[in-house]
Amino acid sequence: MKPLVTTRSPVPLLGLGWLLAVLLVSILAPLLPISSPESAEPSLAWSAPDSHHLMGTDALGRDLFSRILWGSRVSLACALAGAATALLLGVSWGLVAGGGSGRRDELMMRVVDLLDSVPLVFLVILLASIARGSSWEAAGGGLGLFFLILGIVYWTPMARVVRGETRSLARREWAVAATALGTPRNRILWRHILPNLIPTILVTVTLIIPRVLLFEAFLSFLGLGVQAPAVSWGTLARDAFEVLNPVRTAWWMVAFPSIALAVTLLALNVVGDALRNDLDPKRQR
Amino acid sequence: MVFTLSFFIIRAAPGGPFDEARDPPAEVKKAIEARYNLDAPLWSQYLDQLQGWLLLDPGPSLRQPDHDVASILGAGLPISIVLGTLALVLGTTIGILLGLLAALRSGSWIDQLVVAFASIGISLPLYVIAGMLVLAFSFGLGWVPPAGWETPRSLILPVTCLALAPAAQAARLIRSGLIEMKTQEFARTARAKGRGSFDVLLRHCLRPAMIPLVSALGPTAAALLTGSLVIEQIFAIPGVGMHFIQGALNRDYPLVLGAVLLYTVLLQLLTLLTDVLLLMLDPRLREEAP
Amino acid sequence: MPRGRIIRGAGSGEKMSVRGLLLLLSMAFVAIWLGSLIPDALPGRADLVIGNGTDPGSLHPHRATGIAEGRVILALHEGLLLLDPATLEPLPGCAVSWTVSADGTLWRFQLQPQLAWSDGSPLDASDFRRSWLDLLDPTQGAPYGDLLEIVVGARQWRRGQGSRQQVQIRTEGSNTLVVELIHPAPWFPYLCAQTPLQPVHISSRGTAGVDVPTNGPWKLQQWRLRDRIRLVPNSNYRGPARPALEIIDFLAAESGNTMLNLFVAGMSDWAVRVPAAAIPVLRSDPDWSSKWRADPYLAISFYRLNLERPPLDDVAVRRALSLSIDRMQLCQDVLGGDPEPAHGFVPWAPAAMERQRRKLQKRGVSTVLDDPLPDYQGATLTAQGVIPSIEVSAEQWPKIGYDPQLARELLAKSGWKVPGMAGGRSLPAIEILLPSGGTNTLVAEWLQLCWKRELGLDTRIRAMEWRSFLDAQRSVDYDISRSNWIADFPDVATFLTLFTSDAPNNRTGWSDAEYDRHVAEALHHTDVKQRQRSWYLAEKILLERGPILPLWSMTSGNLISQQITGFHANPLDQHDLRGLDRGAP
Fold first, then answer.
1. Residue B246: its chain C contacts at CB < 8 A?
2. Shortest CA distance to C447 belongs to which of C275, C326, C299?
3. How many domains, in total, are found in chain B?
4. Contact (CB, 8 A) for C559 and C260
5. What is the distance of C-alpha C100 from the center of its chain?
6. ipTM of predicted assembly, 2 dp
7. Lowest mean pLDDT: which of A41-45, A120-124, B58-62, C177-181?
8. What is the C-alpha separation between A247 and A264, in angstroms, rounded?
9. Are B204 and C258 inside 8 Å of each other by CB?
10. Which helix (H) or strand (E) holds C386?
């Protein structure tokens, strides 16, 4: 693995800086000297950005800056947890399929094919709407279930990539030799092949994270994702659109959550591209 | 011959379009499973519904007892189709033009502008774009209505928003395709024969460069459908996406299920269309086939 | 061989022409098809466009519950009587005249001869009889069936002790309808003009569907869900007043903000349910204030509490929830300043009316409505207990029921843990159920913060689309649920009969024998003084131990284009569309 610093352009570094900053701030949000995202001062509702409220306030007089910071916690958590779910599901599925017999492989990949031919986004919305009303959500498992839902959409590409690499790695001399020596197949898979897959997996994860982040924003914007009082960038945008009118235009409510999301997405894409250039096994060969 | 070939490809492709499109029960089952796993004691309803769906008579909406699902979706479909088709056609056309322009002047500021447009258009969430456009053109300048579905002017903003992503996608694909083709031997030969570079680009390179664009049509259309969910909400457009999301929000399962099925069929049809188009564009596919 | 050759080769020759033709044909087909879709999809502008709020759940007069539905239904139907748009005085509708016996219980309506449905088939008194009996029919489960329980025999039938034939709604000949009531109901003519009592065609009995004849000045042309309902003139309408405007659209959108945007863009002439956030601007900005009408509306906004769910079964918790709300702050911060705080269940107490009058005068609005319920003294829940509303001055009114310290003490006394005090069980989290859409959520979030701050109570918000929301509320599937109650007629009875043990719209699980007794007495008194006294006692009990949190007395909120003439403010916020016209721009 080459370090990222070798990349010539400063853009990925800027992106990485932004991502680290957002991550840091979101982790530290409870410790930062900002007002609580839920403390309302209705008398200050609808104030435009000023020195007290850097990004203005919302309809209840809550500080938008702090809500965006707190929103980043949920949004990033969703992106990471969703990607992690996809990672776990995809890697294990891909490994087991790719390392298994021809028949098992075919069967498992058929499932992936089938899922890919279905408009998964729509099924997930169906799922989300069911989850919304279930007792599960009422019991407080809403966010966890939501993570799972996010992961479900994006695990198939991971499974495909991992399975492909696994098959090609399993044909290498060292793997064949290990098999000939009587090493159990599972041990070969998890101990020997998996570590070799890490660059590929990383590359795929960098592709998945921005998509999950976007998908969270999409679902929350539609009202099917994160539920109040939790805030995410998607719910903030939804709130803004519910009051977007020319009579009393609160442009800051639309602009800042959107910018936060857009810049983060761009940063993720840029950093992802750079990582791919450095890590992509095909380009290394 | 074209017909036989497309038929052949569709038949040969694993998990091909017709399997799904003609076989809704698998879909129904999956969707219903998702529903009933969480809501178990309703198996008899399942059988009734299955029968209803097969006969294209899914019954009344759960939340709008005066309407049945088929009529709700039937009213929404033409709207969504108008919206989606216009966006796709407009977006692709603009994208191709931009891609051509960028490839012609590759490396220039125009090129860089197009590249920037493409990367922003692809990565920005739709509602951000819609928000900016509404703020600028509806509230700021007052040129177009901010919502509703009434006169042709109502079409402008939603179509523009929705067309942006396909335009960005097309611009990127065409640009990279053309730049690659430009260096190919046949293009150089053509130029050597005295044709202008624009001419060469248009006559010789555009067609092969279209192939990746057309093969990306399926995913683009899928993204368009997903995008229409957001756009129809923002602009209060009574299309399928609106019914789908509102149905999902108030747990109108028959309606949501109907919409999911409709989307599946639409996507499969689009995949089929893509295959046919590809076949028309790429002679290699045809010659390998028999 | 360069690849270009192959490609060019494939593109020429006979294949090309076949393929080209095919492509051309398919493109032409798609173009024609798209072209045919567009005009159907885009309906064009109607003569009058009303931004009507949420989509109606049903256009069946027996099943509709909301005001959005009512507006459409009253344009599609014509009841026995109509209401004067300005004074609300009952006017002849299908009935040309009516009389009432001296004891106020026997009503006789003389119908216009030769009435017809929109399909041309005749309509007579028996249609009204059948419709009203269907409304009462316990097997039909009409949500407002209880409105007619004042008819002799109706209550028994609905409780399973009588029969359809025993209900005293009779016809004499084909043009006379006779109704006998169990107690005097001076408001009965108003009732006859309301949505549930509209005549219903026999074909719509028990079934759903929109393809049903109606008898109003307009008939339904199209109902495109989540978009619009389009009405066109009913050529078979022979009523007293023909409409001035022909095509009417009722736009539907979940979000009031969309309604506002459509109005601003000139796509609607009249918008209701405007988001509260815009109201301060609408009130003060000269561009808007002439279009913004916010008059006292006989309607109360309150929260229902489900008494079957702890901790709301504890009266101390209910009192504490109420005492910790600064309603004046709520009205100003969240509702845009038009409504007034409510400390009782009957809205617009004299002090609130007085404050409203001053507000409107300050805005320069000349037409100020009179007190809609002049005889009733009203009950006000203060920190110290219930007192008659007439004893409260306009200056005391805003904060009279607000005492968060007392709220905490009450909770602590009842064994609950509160901030700043030791011991007690912690309050379990409570869910607030509401219909999705701007103001509802804002109010709930405001209360959420308020209760968290004052009482340390955690609440969750569950927003549902109107229809699902209603289902959940009716089946008492909530902890706290947002509610509005809008008067069916200008009389206290419309509010205070709501929470009797057997009232179908009680929806709280609360029942109190003493309250029931006072209500029953009030209904049977003929003496106005005694009657109002009983109403007061009933409201007092409702406030002391009842399942409600009154929040504010509502104002109508109509944003109406100045091109529209014939629009009159009234306390029922009912506007006969026949009277509306398009004046000079």
1. 226, 254, 465
2. C326
3. 1
4. yes
5. 29
6. 0.82
7. B58-62
8. 31
9. no
10. strand C385-388
Report the C-alpha gap between C14 and B108 in whole angstroms. Answer: 41
Task: Let me know if residue B201 belongs to a domain.
Answer: yes
Residue B22 domain-assigned (yes or no): no
3-state secondary structure of C484: strand
Residue B59 near residue B68, CB atoms below 8 Å: yes
Q: Nearest to residue C300, comparing CAs of C251, C372, C361? A: C372
Task: Report helix, strand or coil for C91.
Answer: strand
pTM, entire model: 0.83
Give mean pLDDT, residues C256-265. 90
Is residue A142 pLDDT above 80, yes or no? no
Nearest CB to B234: which of A224, A241, A261?
A241
Q: Please tell me if residue A148 touches chain B, with a CB cutoff of 8 Å.
A: no
Residue B155 lies in a domain: yes
Q: Which chains touch A (3 or more CB pairs under 8 A)?
A: B, C
pLDDT at C123: 94
**What DSSP element (H or E) covers B19?**
helix B17-21
What CATH number is given to the structural domain containing B205? 1.10.3720.10
Q: Are β-strands C176-180 and C169-172 bridged in parallel, bridged antiparallel, or unpaired?
A: antiparallel
Contact of C465 with C55, CB cutoff 8 Å: no
| Domains of chain A listed by start with CATH number | 11-21+55-284 (1.10.3720.10)
In a domain, B56, yes or no: no
Question: B95 lies in which domain range?
Answer: 69-277
The whole-number pLDDT of residue C322 equals 94
How far apart are the C-alpha atoms of A18 and B120, rounded to whole Å? 17
Q: What is the pLDDT of residues A251-279, one digit of tens each?
A: 888 889 988 998 999 888 888 888 877 77
Q: State the CB neighbour count (10 A cutoff) for residue C384.
A: 10
Q: Which residues contact A220 (CB under 8 A, 6 or more apart)?
A: A226, A232, A233, A234, A235, A237, A238
Name every chain B residue with its beta carbon within 8 A of the beta carbon of C221: none
Distance CA A46, CA A245 (A): 13
